[in-house]
């Protein structure tokens, strides 16, 4: 099973590669991060228009109804310790921690996160799972 971070979620949605979400997990914080990415692309970068931003938001919201969503609630100290050990933000450490705890493959398009995660769990990019849709 796969644990998707927000970078992977947004890139998979933008590519229209939606089948992966039926067998995927994520964290509760990924919803905020994914929507923030849409906001950046509409408001700051102006890569997409407002209408497209709303369509992406609707798709992302629906995807979160399909995926199993995890939280770090009651594991805050462990996540903080791990983040301090690896020099990661709490956000990034949370993904690795949950992937380790739940024995999931972490999917992220953040190269630094993927590199650190690969010391603990299998870590792939969204392109990797698109090519190998049988995961």
UniProtKB/TrEMBL annotation:
Pfam families: PIN
Domain of life: Archaea
Domain PIN: from-to ranges: 3-117
UniProt entry keywords in alphabetical sequence: Magnesium
Matches recorded under InterPro entries: PIN-like_dom_sf (IPR029060), PIN_dom (IPR002716), PIN_Pae0151-like (IPR044153), TypeII_TA_RNase_PINc/VapC (IPR051619)
Record keyword Acyltransferase present: no
PANTHER family (UniProt xref): EXONUCLEASE VAPC9, RIBONUCLEASE VAPC3
Official protein name in the record: Putative nucleic acid-binding protein, contains PIN domain
Organism the protein comes from: Desulfurococcus amylolyticus DSM 16532
Lineage, top ranks: Archaea, Thermoproteota, Thermoprotei, Desulfurococcales, Desulfurococcaceae
